[in-house]
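Suppose you are handed only two things: the residues of a chain and a line of SMILES describing nicotinamide-adenine-dinucleotide. What would the bound structure be? This form records exactly that question and the answer produced for it, so the two can be stored side by side and reused later without any lookup.

QUESTION INPUTS
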Amino acid sequence: MKNISVMGCGTMGNGIAQTFAQFDYNVILYDISQDNLEKAKLTIDRNLERMVKKEVISKEKKSDTFNKIITTTDFNLIRNSDLVIEAISENIELKKSIFSKLDLECDSNTILASNTSSISITELADSTNRKDKVIGMHFMNPVPIMKLVEIINSKHTSKSTTEKIVNLSNQLNKIPLTVNDFPGFISNRILMPMINEAIEALNDGVSEVKNIDGIMKLGMGHPMGPLQLADLIGLDVCKSILEVMFKGLNKEKYMPNPLLNDMVKKGSLGVKSGEGFYDYSESKKAEMVSKRFRND
Ligand SMILES: NC(=O)c1ccc[n+]([C@@H]2O[C@H](COP(=O)([O-])OP(=O)(O)OC[C@H]3O[C@@H](n4cnc5c(N)ncnc54)[C@H](O)[C@@H]3O)[C@@H](O)[C@H]2O)c1
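ANSWER OUTPUT
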């Protein structure tokens, strides 16, 4: 596999594109929004520049990596990829329609992967005629730094597809761990109830944001508190994941807390909107991101 396409250039898509490019893959980064593509280019440039400053990579490596990524709104460019990784918004109907379009338009050997946090890979595969070549490839945020790739096998994923994706993840210097196809898989089935509970504790007035996060960091050894992590993931994404788990696993504990629903409704989505449980005005955002990178 040499030619990789990434659909969706948001929080995850630009990190996935950067990671593949750093390991010398040719990447097409596709999105319907030209504005978002421009923002993604800036983010990738900033991330690579930070690595140059820390002497992790050379200036030449930065420009080679950057040049490996073609950004586009033209769907035709992704047709001949060896692998397409879908990283668009967490909406099952949207993803199903994209998978059926990819199936119709892409080369018959192209593997179709989804970076979904919770949606059934089997359902996505069922909207194609290449069910054996559909798989979950769930990267963690921030993608260039986090080691894990949660690989999700649908009911139809072939052994050969899984092997190729596991090998590819290893090539990226990541650690792939495979799981079966249940709503939320392992990562979010365990993480999201904790985030939801932290929001409930805040809503009940048990404590304030900084103390809730501080208790989980200092007391439980978490590198980041659950509310700060929710901001980093995106509150809309957290809400969507909880809804998928609530519907799929049919248990009240997965129902998004009303405070989470309210914040999403008023556009407080966390880091990406500039405000969530914390304030991310430009200066604060830079401070937070650089602190996180220093810790890593
Ligand atoms: N945010 C996280 O921490 C995180 C972690 C792991 C997995 N995920 C999953 O990754 C996926 C993407 O999440 P995100 O946080 O990057 O979302 P995001 O909202 O930051 O970005 C989504 C991007 O998809 C684009 N898009 C929407 N519809 C499209 C279409 N039809 N064709 C092409 N592009 C389209 C949007 O323009 C936007 O740029 C979701 O499935 C999410 O559950 C998110």
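WHAT STANDS OUT: DSSP finds twelve helices and eight strands in the chain. The first strand starts at residue 3 and ends at 7.
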